[in-house]
Amino acid sequence: NSGVVCLLRPLLLDVVPSIRQTTALALGRLADYDVGLAEAVVKAGILPQLMCSLPEENRYYKKTAAFVLRAIAKHSPQLAQAIVQCGALEMLVICLEDFDPGVKEGASWTFGYIARHNSELSQAVVDAGTVPLLVLCIQEPEIALKRIAASTLSDISKHSAELAQTVVDAGAIAHLAQMIPNPDAKLKRQVLSALSQIAKHSVDLAELVVEAEIFPVVLTCLKDSDEYVKKNGATLIREIAKHTPELSQFIVNSGGVAAVVDCIGSCRGTVRLPGIMTLGYMAAHSEDLSMAVIVSKGIPSLCACLIEEHEDHIKAAAAWALGQIGRHTTEHARHVAVANVLPTLLDIFVDTHSSEDLKSKASRFKALKNILQKCTYLPALEPLLHEAPPSILKHIIGQFSKVLPHDSKARRLFVTTGGLKKVQEIEAEPGSLLQEYINTINNCYPEEIVR
């Protein structure tokens, strides 16, 4: 408000190097504060001044100039675009080739802040020739430089398969994969994130990541003491598992399911989410993969998530995953039903505090319907008769109408437990599917018992 930005601008061209550097630092801190100040710095015409003699400057000034640029770029795509338009990328590439690791780190960090906004800005970063230089940076001995370069490769890769392919073509996967066992947790986070962003786009890219022999070493990340390493490791496995049954089977063969189940059991909150999704994707592919999740005790872990978690989106993911496990055959549905999952899903559906997203996933359209349509384990279904809303009730009654005509023991139990009595209390529209189910059940018994 006092017009300081305009007063600082000519000092960027001062003959004393330390004044130039301190001026840039002041501008960077102003721009870092909020989007309004960043816009004010850009409008004051600071960027051309900052760039004009950058290649000849000392390493301290270069680092500070990179700080100013990322302080501006981080706020919005429009501000990042302003940096691209002033020709900063070409100058930053020169910094990325500098002998000083700190200068490389600053440039790499700025490229990441520009690339993360959208695919157009990411493409501009790629077009500037950064990717091969970033791949060289992850091979440098300095841990901080490795971290930032891996993070920037992740930011570039995330937008599209084409951008990810550019990173792959520069030979990044092999070098990233070699760093998974590195003891530095922050580096591991970025490495796992970069590989996830590459693998997520297509089967071909996921297969290239797998071919870099990341298994079984990536499974050790699921036991890491750092929560973000765990989360990013599980995310990488999820991005591979989702594509094809073959890739999921490869993960199973590597001992991946048990490792994911253990990971879900050992953490809380959003760290669980990618693991939950991984089990759901695997189970969705085929009966055998779903059974692999069951054998590895995936159902109790997912049920625990339904009960323990407070965030609706995590409960929704667990409900979806259980639905994928139970939807294949009566045997799969029985395993889910025996674990006493159905009452929990029903409670979520009828709970007035549940979000609409959670209701839709745990409702008749998703998990409950998937399981109920295959479930013939009547002891698990019967308690639901007394609590289920009409939308769910028809699926439960439908399963009873399939089983009771062929099972005399089940027919006797259905009477003694009060199930048949409850069926008589249901008001169904004449000619409806529910009425047909009720008639089928009633026809299993003599008329006086029904009365």
UniProtKB/TrEMBL annotation:
Molecular function GO labels: microtubule binding
GO cellular component term, pick one: acrosomal vesicle
The encoding gene: Spag6
Single GO biological process annotation from the record: filopodium assembly
Signal peptide: none
SUPFAM superfamilies the UniProt entry points to: ARM repeat
PANTHER family: SPERM-ASSOCIATED ANTIGEN 6, SPERM-ASSOCIATED ANTIGEN 6 ARMADILLO REPEAT-CONTAINING
InterPro entries: ARM-like (IPR011989), ARM-type_fold (IPR016024), Armadillo (IPR000225)
Pfam families, alphabetized: Arm
Residue ranges crossing the lipid bilayer per the database entry: none
Record protein name field: SPAG6 protein
Lineage of the organism: Eukaryota, Metazoa, Chordata, Craniata, Vertebrata
